[in-house]
Write a structure and sequence with these properties.
heterotrimer; A: 6-stranded mixed beta sheet; 4-stranded antiparallel beta sheet; 10 helices; B: mainly alpha; binds adenosine-5'-triphosphate; binds magnesium ion
Chain lengths: 255, 342, 293
């Protein structure tokens, strides 16, 4: 079943056509990779899906519901969360607080209940904590739970960001270059984690430059170049696609 | 691992508030000087305002240059409702809270749509406008001549007429404010505020509504300021618009910066230091041969502010918190991790 | 016609004060665009300029020398302020930088109290005090000086930024920091230059207003705020728009003083600020522009 449907999506920045008439769909319980050389428009697609800015044209449909033109926090509520190309952690908060913040949508204690610390607030806080600890264990971050997130190694910071995005078990998780800055070993582990999570029912849209990883984890690949979709298919199909090879050779990205 | 460890700083603050309450009760018996009690009333009032500002600045990361206006709204609401229309003082306090909330919404909604420093500008403008109204609407406020004859605070038939009883009232309210703020910052709402401070785009991506969260922080800080203003009016029984000038807003800001906006205790610490320094300066400046009255303060605090922000931007309580963490078990963890990596 | 002459009178006084605001507002815009700092101490440069000129000229210097010397000293002070307070904190948050400039303004005001005391001082007008009558309105020669000098200074600024090498470098820095760096322009140097230039403009503003409304240690606060409003009305990034904003604020103030009451003057200006902030955050004169995330 299609979870997300992107139809004729375009985005102009002044004169720059960052994304032009891009369409593709994402299947439930799959990993779709969005690849392309630098400046191809991948992050721009992410920003449109998550409502950071509205598309200049086109529609985005999640589960038959049109979500284009919604605000970022509303998109999150609809069930799409993300990580960022340039890490956006809450650096001064501890690791566990970062993850707990991710629980925002699953909980509802407001100012009054929290401020007066009513029993329901305490109960909910315990629930948030337990659930977050569970995820920290899963991500192998227990040891770092009480460290400020900003002090972790780059690889672990990436993990925290992913944990924050997945804890609510959203319908779709967007990962913008999660392997960037990780060493070979760390990337391989993260790839395993993604595959595990897919088996548990999660759906991912992944932007990644590390082709080895992409070919390993992706079920479906969409290739962008200069804002235009130039190819789409399974990893095997993409590896043999002439225009994809040309696009990559034309740029200086190491494949 | 259970939640005990996570709530350590929360519980630490609770102990702090308990100790504070004991100290507050014992203090007047140890130091029976009326002068000192009256400075502590002032510290308590400023502490209430600044604790609200800590939530706004330290947690939501928003800066206000108009909190004296909220303080003034509280003071004049109480003055007018209980002094002019003879309603019970509590009605005045509630009126102040209500007006402060409405005004915070009116200022906040448009400002938060804009970039970060615009709240500073909007609150500054709002401060000047409120001041002008207090000054010019003489039939209601008494204008520059001031508002006389505000009755003492009264609740359930008990009237707070002596300095000592008022001192207990103010510090009880402050302790409640600290408790409320402590609960809040260690909750879902508090985390949402801190998240915004950390990264707005990340906060939005996990479903936090920036507008409503920032509004909550602004409204909470406005209510704290308004309540303090109401109490202040009942305490001194005479108020005039100059007490709520833009300069007063900046003084509140100074206190929070000195104390450190990232700590629950920063507001109170800043208030204590500010009030004492002002008292000290009053005594010392004439000895140095200057006869500049209260004006010396502004240079002193100007220099203090600049030096602090450049060299110790986290404020006094901030650095103290840092030192505390040196002794916490977390330190060991870091070494473990390094050891494991080798 | 009584009302017409009053109208003209108010218009002239609005233009006079507007020209003062314009000079300070330009300083705001320059500083904000190059350093990213909203400098709340901007008005204090006007105060320093005015009081320094008064001291220097009463020490026997001819007026023109006193003016030049005062401006140079204030420019130095501005540069020093940039090195001592803005530069070390340049990586801090917007909020921190705002508070630092507030702190600095306290320091300037305090220094002024020590040097000049709290009582107001006056400066003799540049050329006599005999009023001129134009269009039924009475005009003091100093008003003409004020408007004339401001316009000349603004023209000078225009020339500087668009025609000279250094000026173009500063402009480049505003447009694109990175590209400017590639061209060998150091943003740090530009930050220093822009603040001392703004300081000089502020000083000039203070000097020309001093014969009209006197000078005291606290004159900087309100001058700075009004210029600030002007700059925001102009959109904060556009110098000519800030100048228009300054004249607009000057005129609005003169009229609300004349027709309403002088007590409301400040509130009206700030109400205009709030209206602009809320309804036209890019400034009164801006075309609609896309938001960049
Ligand atoms: N907010 C913006 N304003 C103006 N132009 C933008 C904006 N965001 C992106 N662009 C432009 O759109 C184009 C596509 O950028 P985008 O960041 O989507 O590329 P990308 O595929 O994510 O590249 P990379 O692999 O380097 O991350 C680029 O030319 C970029 O300069
Ligand atoms: Mg990208």
């Amino acid at each position: 079943m299609n979870l997300l449907e992107i139809k004729n999506l375009s985005k102009d920045f002044g004169g720059v056509h960052a994304v032009q008439d891009v369409s593709f769909t994402i299947k439930q319980e799959s990993i779709t990779a969005l690849i392309g050389p630098n400046g191809a428009g991948k992050t721009t697609v992410f920003n449109m899906i998550t409502g950071v800015f509205p598309p200049s044209d086109g529609t985005i449909i999640l589960d038959t519901k049109k979500i284009s033109n919604k605000k970022p926090h509303q998109i999150a509520k609809e069930g799409i969360t993300r990580t960022f190309q340039n890490l956006q952690l809450f650096a001064d908060m501890t690791v566990i607080e970062n993850i707990m913040a991710g629980m925002h949508l699953l909980t509802k204690t407001g100012v009054w209940k929290a401020g007066l610390r009513l029993t329901s607030a305490k109960r909910e806080e315990q629930y948030i904590y337990d659930k977050s600890m569970e995820w920290l264990k899963k991500l192998n971050l227990e040891q770092e739970a009480y460290l400020p997130a900003g002090t972790l190694s780059y690889g672990k910071q990436r993990l925290v960001e992913i944990g924050r995005a997945v804890i609510t078990q959203p319908k779709l998780i967007l990962l913008d270059e999660p392997m960037a800055g990780l060493n070979h070993n760390e990337s391989a582990k993260l790839a395993d984690l993604l595959l595990d999570m897919k088996k548990e029912g999660n759906t991912f849209l992944l932007v990644e430059h590390d082709m080895e990883i992409v070919m390993r984890v992706a079920d479906h690949i969409v290739v962008l170049d200069h804002g235009v979709k130039i190819a789409e298919g399974t990893p095997d199909e993409i590896q043999q696609n002439a225009s994809v090879i040309a696009a990559y050779l034309g740029s200086e990205v190491t494949v | 691992m259970d939640i005990k460890k996570f709530t350590r700083s929360y519980r630490f603050n609770l102990y702090g508030i308990t100790v504070l309450l004991f100290a507050v009760i014992i203090f007047p018996f140890l130091v029976p000087s009326n002068y000192i009690i009256s400075t502590f009333i002032l510290i308590g009032l400023y502490g209430i305002v600044c604790t609200g500002l800590v939530v706004l600045m330290g947690h939501a990361g928003q800066i206000s240059l108009g909190h004296a206006a909220f303080y003034g709204i509280g003071a004049y609401s109480s003055a007018i409702v209980s002094g002019k229309f003879d309603f019970p003082p509590l009605a005045g306090v509630l009126t102040g809270i209500l007006i402060a909330c409405i005004v915070a919404l009116l200022i906040g909604i448009p400002s938060f749509k804009l970039k970060e420093h615009y709240l500073a500008l909007a609150t500054l403008g709002f401060g000047v406008i409120v001041f002008t109204f207090l000054k010019e609407w003489t039939s209601l406020t008494g204008g520059l001549n001031g508002f006389f004859g505000i009755p003492p605070f009264e609740v359930a038939g008990f009237s707070f007429t002596t300095d000592r009883s008022f001192y207990f009232l103010v510090w009880a309210v402050l302790a409640f404010g600290l408790w409320f703020a402590n609960n809040l910052i260690h909750s879902r709402t508090g985390r949402a505020l801190k998240s915004i401070h950390g990264s707005e785009s990340a906060a939005e991506s996990i479903g936090i509504n920036l507008m409503t969260s920032k509004l909550k922080a602004l409204i909470i800080s406005a209510v704290f300021a308004s309540v303090a203003g109401s109490l202040y009016a009942h305490y001194i029984s005479f108020i005039n618009p100059q007490l709520f000038e833009v300069m007063t807003s900046i003084v509140f800001l100074i206190m929070v910066v000195i104390g450190g906006s990232s700590s629950l205790w920063g507001g109170l610490a800043g208030a204590i230091i500010y009030v004492w320094l002002v008292e000290l300066l009053k005594d010392w400046v004439p000895l140095l041969g200057f006869s500049t009255g209260g004006e010396f303060e502004i240079v002193f605090f100007g220099v203090l502010l600049v030096v602090l922000l450049i060299f110790k931007p986290e404020g006094l309580m901030g650095s103290w918190k840092e030192r505390k963490s040196l002794f916490s078990p977390q330190k060991k963890k870091v070494q473990d991790k390094k050891g494991a990596a080798l | 016609m009584e009302s017409l002459s009053q109208l003209m009178q108010l218009l002239f006084s609005g233009l006079t004060i507007g020209s003062i605001y314009a000079l300070i507002a330009i300083g705001f815009v320059i500083t904000y665009n190059i350093t990213g700092v909203l400098n709340f101490a901007q008005g204090e440069f006007a105060m320093l300029g005015a009081l320094l000129t008064i001291s220097l000229s009463s020490a026997g210097l001819p007026l023109y020398l006193a003016v030049i010397l005062a401006i140079l000293i204030v420019m130095l002070v501005g540069g020093f302020f940039e090195r001592a307070a803005i530069y070390p904190a340049r990586k801090s948050s917007v909020a921190t930088l705002i508070i630092i400039t507030i702190g600095i303004s306290f320091v300037f005001r305090g220094a002024a109290i020590f040097i000049w005391g709290t009582q107001p001082h006056s400066l003799t007008p540049f050329s006599g005090n005999s009023p001129i009558r134009i269009f039924e309105a009475v005009l003091l020669p100093q008003s003409l000086w004020a408007v004339g000098i401001s316009l000349a200074a603004l023209a000078g600024m225009y020339y500087f930024f668009n025609k000279t090498y250094t000026g173009k470098a500063v402009t480049a820095c505003v447009m694109n920091r990175f590209a400017a760096q590639l061209m060998g322009i150091k943003p740090e140097k530009m930050s220093f230059l822009s603040i001392s230039l703004s300081a000089g403009l502020g000083a000039l503003a203070g000097i020309i207003i001093a014969p009209i409304s006197g000078a005291s240690y606290q004159m900087g606060l309100m001058l700075g705020m009004k210029a600030f409003i002007a700059a925001v009305i102009g959109g904060l990034t556009n110098a000519p728009a800030a100048v228009l904003g300054a004249f607009l604020i000057g005129i609005i103030e003169a009229f609300s003083e004349g027709y309403l009451s002088s007590g409301y003057k400040d509130a009206v200006s700030f109400a205009v600020l709030l209206l602009v902030l809320f309804f036209m955050p890019n400034g009164l004169f801006s075309k609609k522009s896309g938001k960049r995330v």
